[in-house]
Amino acid sequence: xxxxxxxxxxxxxxxxxxxxxxxxxxxxxxxxxxxxxxxxxxxxxxxxxxxxxxxxxxxxxxxxxxxxxxxxxxxxxxxxxxxxxxxxxxxxxxxxxxxxxxxxxxxxxxxxxxxxxxxxxxxxxxxxxxxxxxxxxxxxxxxxxxxxxxxxxxxxxxxxxxxxxxxxxxxxxxxxxxxxxxxxxxxxxxxxxxxxxxxxxxxxxxxxxxxxxxxxxxxxxxxxxxxxxxxxxxxxxxxxxxxxxxxxxxxxxxxxxxxxxxxxxxxxxxxxxxxxxxxxxxxxxxxxxxxxxx
Length: 294
Ligand SMILES: [Zn+2]
Ligand SMILES: [Zn+2]
Fold this sequence. Notes:
The chain is an alpha+beta fold and 294 residues long. 32% of the residues lie in helices and 20% in strands. It is built from 8 helices and 16 strands.
């Protein structure tokens, strides 16, 4: 039933978007982290005994699809992301500005495909907090950047780190939400590198990796490469935001995934890169064009 197990820690690979991989803890206290993988397997786990904690790494549509299977569990989330679980409009707001029609599309998708069900947090996650699940002591690591309340989870004795959506895939990190932040993403990843573990579990992609910080370095490299490509483009002359977005530096020319229009994410993420470069005085906005400074 499990794709990975070490002691009471189990791992279920999910499908593709809008699903993710789940981490389960089958200990004196039982827990599910990111209940958005495989409905049947999650139900089987639930049938084996009460699930005390339903823990979520962050508020995104692909991490909540089967939360509704665990109404009795204590729902745990970081306070920065908690409001997005209480109200679907708050979650849609977190994605950034979008026309009404686009919001409708998201609302329908969240409620019908992702089974979004409003839920209040029972326990707020905090950086450094250790949850005593029995043999398993799980440390919460607040790793903002992807979302403001994104958390990773460190299984201290078992030497396992669940990095959630800092997912170490080739595609690289996502930081396209309203409160996403590139500098914070970099700091969070640098911090994850300091944990000496044997296994990295992630919420997407392969999901199970050797605990080698080089995986994190390669992932960080994607951010620096995106910036280099942007600088390279601007070195050829000033460009408008539309012209930059058309280059597809981040996502190429991929078609939408569900309601997720990648050109909107491309635009949001390029804007974050531009403001990073502006804060370092590498780029200046003149009218509607961005100009590279030396
Ligand atoms: Zn996410
Ligand atoms: Zn995700």
